[in-house]
Structure formats: C-alpha cells, structure tokens
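G., before I forget:
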Amino acid sequence: MSSPYTIRVFGDPVLRKVAEDIDDIDGKLVKLADDMLDTMYAEPGIGLAAPQVGVQRRLFVYDVGDGPNTLVNPVISESDGEWEFEEGCLSVPDLSWNIVRPKQIHLTGYDLDGREVSIEADELLARLFQHELDHLDGVLLLDRLDDETRKQAMKTLRERAEQLNQIQVSADLGFTPQSSGGLSLP
Ligand code: ZN
C-alpha cells in the first residue's frame, strides 16, 4: 500500500506544537484523514495523529481491528483506574516502554460527518486515545517516562542520530556503508 505521508519523527518541532481546533469538516479534511489512514496502515500502526504527518490540527485516525475511524476535536472528559501497558510510537521508532495510564476513559468528539461521538473506552482503545491526544498537545511518550528511563531513551536517540549523520557524511563522500547502522566494515 502506498504511503502518502512520511511520518515525522522525534526531533521534528511539529511534534511539540499544540494542534489547533478544527472549525470546518470539508473535503480537504476528509482527504487528509484518508491519506493518514493509508500512511498508518502502511507502517503498520493502529493510530496516527495529524501532527505526525506535519499537520497542526486536532484530528487522529485509528483502527483497533474493527475498521478505520477518524476523530475530530477529541476531548477526554473522564478517566478512571490505572493500567500498565507497553507503549510504542511511530514517531519514536523501535522503542517502547511500560507506561501506566488511566484504564478507562470517556472521550467525546466528532466524526467526519460532523456528528458528535461519545465513546467509553477501556484498556487498548483507552490507551490509544490517550496516546493520540498527547500528540495533539505536543506531548510524546518520552514525557511520560521517569527521569532515569528518559535519560536512557534520550541517549539511545542521540546515538542513533549520530549514526544517521555518519551515514549521511559517508554518502556525501561518495560511498555507502554496508549496513544501515554504518558499523560493519565492507
Ligand atoms: Zn505516537
């Protein structure tokens, strides 16, 4: 499946901005949601928020196995309980952490037809909603970690960025490292 968007990853400032409310649900917005779903399925992922494709609007798409869904201007009105779950993020690729969040939430918002929706979500779906809402507020998984775990995560991300830079430099010099990590010798 083709992927209309490149997913923005950690370090991209758009992931740190608070997204703006959507006033009009028009054809452009429906197209955006369609393209986001294609991008999400191509990864594959089960949720994707607009800032992850560089769009600062309060919208996310998801599919937890019962088909594609889009939520516009979502708000969590109630949350209850605690649930630990290993959470990853397409914008912080290949890393995941056990994170405790509320187990149940009540979420309201709008669908793409402008109808009001009200969803009682539990466990995975509740987790997904909280994760995507974080994206709309410029919050990443890293902000949900304790200090020590976050330091480790930042170190890993820094090292990875340096490796990518080395590959870039190698490419500029006219040769390409054998491995994507740039560590093995030819
Ligand atoms: Zn994410």
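DSSP finds three helices and seven strands in the chain. The mean pLDDT is 91.

More on Monday.
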